[in-house]
Design brief:
Rossmann fold; 7-stranded mixed beta sheet; single chain; about 20% strand; about 260 residues; about 45% helix
């Protein structure tokens, strides 16, 4: 079944804009301890997940890759090390971008930008990625449509995100750690009076499962979506394909970066 171009984007919801600014401020505050806590709390599993995502994309050295919601740039670096030609990273939290620039040097170009209003021309990239950032979009569906817009026909969009394990016993153990232990450790290390690491498990619990996320990607104009489960379903990789012949959704009025 063909996938028609999605309807025009809307950016006039003040409530979603306020939520986006609040989340950006929160991530600016936790930026100095973000990498340490990610690796500590996951036992470095997040590093292996990023490397696997790059392998699944089977990059050939010529692709232009956009890593949206890039945070401190770990997935951006994994994409470059995994064979991407050129990588561009964007995030709405400027403190995260500052750390990403220090980490990658001049190997990767980083910009402060909102994923629901990207400063790039239509069909600018061969591949787009978001690692552990989709939950933080003020409007997930608008973000998906915007990613769709900047991808070329035949392009791919990889989403690496937490999920909910299907095994009831494993899910119970995981939820206990995720809902109780992780917030205590995270807030202790980060000095998190703003409860950033309480927000994290809440946002995961509210996130759509693999089938629902696949449908939302297809509703945004993507075609086939391949899903790979990681570590017993703790996380999933979705790779959504842009149909070869369907033009991207166009949007006016945004200043573009070259």
């Amino acid at each position: 079944m063909p996938h028609h171009a999605p309807p025009p984007l809307r950016f006039d919801d003040e409530r979603t804009r306020k939520r986006g600014r609040r989340i950006a401020t929160m991530f600016d505050r936790i930026a100095p301890t973000y990498d340490l806590l990610n690796h500590l709390l996951s036992g470095n599993t997040d590093v292996r997940w990023r490397k696997k995502a790059a392998r699944l994309l089977d990059l050939q050295g010529t692709e232009r890759v956009l890593d949206a919601c890039c945070g401190t740039g770990d997935l951006s670096v994994a994409m470059l090390d995994g064979g991407a030609g050129v990588v561009t990273g964007t995030d709405f939290a400027s403190a995260m971008i500052d750390i990403a620039k220090e980490k990658a040097g001049d190997r990767i170009r980083f910009h402060v930008a909102d994923t629901t209003a990207l400063p790039f021309e239509d069909a600018s990239f061969d591949v787009a990625t978001i690692g552990f950032g989709v939950r933080n979009l003020e409007d997930m569906d608008a973000g998906f449509r915007e990613i769709r817009r900047v991808l070329k026909p035949g392009g791919r969009f990889m989403v690496l995100e937490f999920s909910r394990p299907p095994n009831p016993l494993f899910r119970g153990v995981y939820y206990t750690y995720f809902m109780i232990v992780l917030p205590m450790i995270g807030n202790l290390v980060s000095g998190g009076s703003d409860n950033a690491y309480t927000y994290l498990p809440r946002s995961v619990m509210a996130f759509p499962g693999p089938n629902a996320l696949t449908k939302r990607l297809q509703d945004a104009g993507f075609g086939q979506v391949d899903v790979t489960s990681l570590t017993g379903g703790i996380a999933c990789i979705h790779i959504a394909h842009v149909p070869d012949q369907v033009p991207p959704q166009r949007r006016r009025g945004t200043e573009r970066l070259q």
